[in-house]
Each structure stands twice: as C-alpha cells, then as structure tokens.
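Renewal narrative, Specific Aim 1. Our central claim is that a sequence can be written position by position from structural information alone. The example that follows is taken directly from our test logs and has not been curated for this report. It begins with the structure tokens describing the chain, in the order in which they were read.
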C-alpha cells in the first residue's frame, strides 16, 4: 500500500503532493507553508485510499462535532481489509478509551475521569512547582542549556510517573517506549506504510510497557497507594469497575499522550517567546500572562498537529461526501491558522483576546488531561522566565521525526 500510494501521489496535482511532502523530515521545522497551501486548495477526497483530508477550521470543527464521527479504527474500511488479509487489528492489545466509541468510551472515560478531577489536578500544583524549581536550580546561569532535555522533557515524565506511581528510576525505559509508540500515532503510518520498518521495535516497546503496567496493577491491588493506578482500581460507577486490561490500556494511553504532548507544548511555547523576546520579558513581569501564552501556543504551534476520525455512516462535510468506513484526516495545525477563523493567524499573539483552538479536541473526546497539561506548562514557563530573564536562542532547534506529535528533539538556549 505504501508504494502504491507514493507512486500514485507523485502523479497527482497539488495539494495531494503536499501530503507526501509533510512526510519529509526537512518539512518538520516549519510545515505551516505546506498546511496553508493544502487549506487554500480545499478538502481532498482520495477514494482509492478511503481517505478524506480537511484543513479549514470549519471543516475540522464539523467533523469533531459530527455524531457519526467514530474513533474506533475497527470501523475503518482499510483496517477491515487488513484484518481480512490476516493482519492483527490491535497488535498492542485492548485500546485506550480514546480509540473507542460509545457506549464503551462513555463507560471507560467516566470511570477514568475521577482520577483527573479538578481537586486532583489542584493537589498536584505544589509538586509541579517543586519539580520545576529543582530542574531549573540545576542549570548554571551563563551556560547553554537544552531546554528540551533540561526542562520540557523531564517535567512531564516526572509528573506522569508521580501520577501513575512509577519509580523515576524506570523513566529511561518509559521514554524509549513512549517515543517509539508515539511514532505509530501518525495517521500517515496507517495508510502509507510509513515506519513499517520500525514495527518490530514498536511491538517490543508496546509489549514491554503493557507488561510493566500489568505488574504495577497487581502490586497496587495488593498494596494500594495514593496514585492513579490505585485510583483506577478503586474507581466504581453504579457497581461497574475497570478490568485489568482496561486499566493497563488507560495507563498506557495516558503515559504516551500525557508525556509527548506536554513536552511539545512547553518547548513550543518557549520557542515562540524566545523568538519574541518582548514576550519573554513581559511574562517575567506578569506571570498571569502564562495561561494566555499557553492557549496561543496551542493554536499557533499545537503539540498535536493532526488527528483523524472514521465515518461511522455515510457523511457529508461541507461539499465532500465521505462514505461509511473512510478515514477523515483533520489537519488541526492548518485549521488553527485559518484566516476565516483567526485574524493574523501566522502571528504569535497571546493578547489577541479570546483564543479558540481545537488542540484538545471537542465533544466527548475532549482531552482528559487538558487541565494538567495547562498547569504544567503555565508553571514551567512563568518560572523559567523569572529565573532566566535574559535567556536567548543559542541556535536553531532540531525536530523529532513525528508528524502528528510534532516536537523538538533539542532547543539550545543561552541562559
């Protein structure tokens, strides 16, 4: 399928070729010109690939809100074909609730959301402050740091390990597994065969992670603690509880989604301010600006660049007919710079007033960890600018290969 798609796409007019260009690592530092050209062309329909691509705010908003938009990939025509050909539909085991539809999604999310209640997130704030202070205290003023390795990466890892009750000593293994599994979230991988060469590694990472979490669940059943796994074991609604497989799948999802996305959010916000030094100085003097900077980052340079849905029934989005079972790819990063939705969309401006974005999704699949991500990023950015008021970019960042969870591998900063 990979070769067929790539060969066919080479003969197609813009912007279908641009979808292929998005796979090019050279596009990772600034994919926004490509997104703009795709958005300006209008929606794409690729019947041979059972795919429709949407890039405007209105279209993406409509798909996310549509009652027939499904998240369960087993409803996809492409996956059904793969299963018929003998491939495993779910090689990593039961999916997290993000990849399920009602009533399964409703039931699992309702049980899991107790562990992310506002009071739980608020209770984490002192721990997050302590973690940020500790990470920044280890940095030498006058030195060149890597903002990803020294702050943006270790903070979310420490928080999610604290939440799950995972020993920080095991963090390197978690980072290894999380990075590999995050690559598999690229929608491109599902219909182009991208990353197929890494499938064995991703399977190994998935098996290791689920096995590790299964052991933790067994330990917490015998000896409950004040952590998320214990809370998920105890969670009950109308006599219903999560099974072991459901707890493992939920923790697996939260670890990957809560780690990779928050790393990107913190680093992307810091980069935007470093490229606008007046904002760095302004945040230092007005820490209450941090929340607006976080929201503008979520719009301007989102940690999740795209997402997808399956047409649960025949659908019409705008002027595009989407047959039941087709995949709908939503280019969120393009949509959020749609001039029909946002004035001066290519300008990073936390003072623009009400900031509307789709970075956390919409409706029943709205990101469960959104309050925690906002808390971590707000504290990290306000503390960073206060401790290092004269920080400057020390060079251009490098980027990870991920298309969906696009983010920096390094961000050199003189502090």
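The sequence written for that structure reads:
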């Amino acid at each position: 399928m990979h070769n067929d798609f790539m060969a066919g796409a080479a003969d197609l007019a813009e912007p279908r070729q641009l979808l292929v260009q998005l796979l090019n690592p050279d596009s990772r530092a600034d994919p926004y010109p490509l997104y703009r050209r795709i958005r300006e062309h209008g929606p794409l329909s690729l019947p041979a690939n059972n795919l429709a691509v949407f890039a405007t705010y209105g279209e993406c908003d409509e798909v996310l809100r549509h009652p027939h938009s499904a998240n369960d990939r087993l409803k996809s025509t492409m996956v059904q074909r793969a299963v018929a050909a003998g491939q495993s539909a779910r090689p990593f085991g039961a999916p997290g609730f993000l990849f399920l539809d009602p009533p399964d999604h409703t039931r699992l999310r309702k049980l899991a959301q107790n562990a992310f209640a506002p009071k739980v997130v608020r209770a984490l704030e002192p721990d997050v402050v302590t973690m940020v202070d500790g990470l920044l205290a280890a940095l030498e003023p006058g030195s060149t740091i890597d903002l990803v390795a020294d702050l943006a990466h270790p903070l979310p890892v420490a928080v999610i390990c604290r939440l799950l009750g995972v020993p920080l000593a095991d963090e390197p293994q978690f980072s290894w597994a999380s990075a590999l599994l995050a690559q598999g979230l690229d929608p491109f991988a599902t219909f182009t065969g991208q990353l197929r060469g890494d499938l064995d590694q991703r399977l190994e990472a998935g098996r290791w992670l689920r096995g590790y979490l299964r052991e933790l669940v067994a330990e917490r059943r015998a000896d409950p603690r004040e952590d998320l796994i214990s809370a998920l074991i105890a969670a009950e609604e109308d006599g219903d509880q999560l099974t072991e497989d459901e707890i493992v799948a939920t923790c697996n999802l939260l670890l990957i989604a809560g780690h990779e996305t928050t790393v990107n959010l913190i680093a992307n916000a810091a980069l935007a301010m470093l490229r606008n030094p007046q904002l760095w100085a302004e945040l230092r003097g007005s820490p209450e600006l941090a929340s607006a900077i976080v929201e503008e980052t979520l719009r301007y340079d989102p940690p999740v660049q795209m997402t997808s849905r399956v047409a649960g029934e025949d659908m019409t989005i705008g002027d595009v007919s989407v047959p039941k079972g087709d995949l709908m790819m939503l280019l969120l990063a393009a949509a959020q710079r749609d001039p029909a939705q946002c004035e001066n969309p290519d300008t990073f401006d936390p003072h623009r007033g009400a900031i509307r974005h789709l970075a956390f999704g919409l409706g029943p699949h709205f990101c469960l960890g959104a309050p925690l991500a906002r808390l971590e990023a707000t504290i990290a950015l306000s503390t960073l600018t206060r401790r290092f008021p004269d920080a400057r970019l020390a060079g251009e960042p490098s980027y990870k290969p991920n298309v969906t969870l696009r983010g920096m591998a390094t961000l050199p900063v003189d502090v």
